[in-house]
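Title: Prediction job returns without error message
Component: structure pipeline
Severity: low
Priority: P3
Assignee: unassigned

Description:
Job completed but the reporter wants confirmation the result is attached to the right record. Sequence as submitted:
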Amino acid sequence: MAAGTLSLRPAVASDCAIVFEWANDPVTRANSFAPDAIARDVHRAWFDRILRDPDRRLYIILESDEPVGQARLESCGGGGSEISVSLAPAWRGRRLAAEAIRLVTARAGGDLVHAYVKPGNDASRRAFLRAGYVEQGTVVRKGLPAVCLTARTGAPR
């Protein structure tokens, strides 16, 4: 896969079903800080809230106009943001994650962007490192250990 082939677009209401499918993928759930399966009505309520929330941005990652994953930026105060990226199962292992992370990070403006990865999720950790993030050590996130990685970007929102 050639670098620079991915793009982002803001999520819209019609993306709810595909994001639900990706979110309930067993590998995604295992690497989440909330590993239980997500009920459809709970997902729909979350999805509707995130689309309306000015402090949260949800993007669909595209490869030649085909949806291949989702990414989220959430304001965490003090000018910082938290990033979350997940590729669809069929698109994992193609070394797309770092490019997707760079694209989303650029949307955070001049903020310090934080990523939290569960220990043992080496693929995600490596993708953030390839995208230019710096490992800050282990912290507690949602009651669980998490590797914290950060990046700064000066790109405009």
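Comment from assignee: result matches the submitted record. The chain has a mean pLDDT of 91.
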